[in-house]
């Protein structure tokens, strides 16, 4: 049985210039027998505007650990669904399989763990005639691998957060809070 009960990670990878393909996955990893497993099972139903789906790499290729993904933005168009369930899901799936291959995720616990991933897909992507799908893949792949690594290593640590408290601030606080 897994001793991984509740680990979280997140990452941001910025888009290429002129694209809206920033990726910001947030991941929960835990035992199928614990709170993560309960949350995973409770996500089996759908919520209007926030499609939930198993992460698959392609038809008949569901990833392990079993992973449920949903979007942070409300879905309004079929084009958005196509990107979410296509390029983004493929990138997330590839990152998970590569994380298993590289030892970031424990292969021997793949059936004892589950993951929930909330992904950011900017609604402008679905409307952008110049969307670079390769960049959409790149940002989501890189960010997912980084989020998984951070979840499994407990990064940033409490000491790191305290050390950078006055040097790192949320971008939305520029001009709002002085450090």
UniProtKB/TrEMBL annotation:
Residues 8-171 form the Formaldehyde-activating enzyme domain. Transmembrane segments: none annotated. Keywords: Lyase. Pfam families: Fae. NCBIfam families: one_C_fae. This is Formaldehyde-activating enzyme. It comes from Ancylobacter polymorphus. The lineage of its organism: Bacteria, Pseudomonadati, Pseudomonadota, Alphaproteobacteria, Hyphomicrobiales.
